[in-house]
Amino acid sequence: MRGRLTGKHFASGDTGHSTLRRTLASLLDLESRPRRSRIVNPTPKQVRALVANFDLASTDDAYLTTWMARHLEVCGFASSFSPLKDLEQAVGAVLRPPLDQGRPPMWQPNPWRRLVAGHRQILRDRAHSYL
Question: What is the pLDDT of residues 42-83, one digit of tens each?
């Protein structure tokens, strides 16, 4: 589990596949780009996906990876709790994670929800400007 978390969320080069990386990039005001794709003429729906799941400029992607290594720590534990989504909701209601952008959110009211969503929108808009 730890390898999956650190490989996906803590590794450079694939910010488009990590909500955590995109959220932190937006709060750090890094430079976004549309997600890399081999699609030559994307449909409007594909364009929305390439922009919503944006990547970063390579220097900013490396910066984000370094920042995360310095400021974040991954912890995990095994659980037989089922379904895990219920456990996540229960833990989220207690810990009240400020970056929670889930629909519905784990806890309400989350005073940071609009701020985080606004910053993510800025990077989506920047990524869209490259198309």
Answer: 999 999 999 999 999 999 999 999 999 999 988 877 888 888
> What DSSP designation does 98 have?
T
Buried b (16+ CB within 10 A) or exposed e, 88-125: eeeebeeeeeeebbeeebbbeebeebeebeebbeebbe
What are the residue ranges of helices labelled H in the chain?
A: 2-9, 19-27, 44-52, 58-71, 84-95, 113-128
Q: Domains of the chain: which residue ranges?
A: 2-128
Measured CA to CA in angstroms, residue 35 lies from 53, 54, 86 at distances of 6, 5, 31
Given the DSSP bridges, would you call strands 32-33 and 55-56 parallel, antiparallel or unpaired?
A: antiparallel
pTM assigned to the model = 0.85
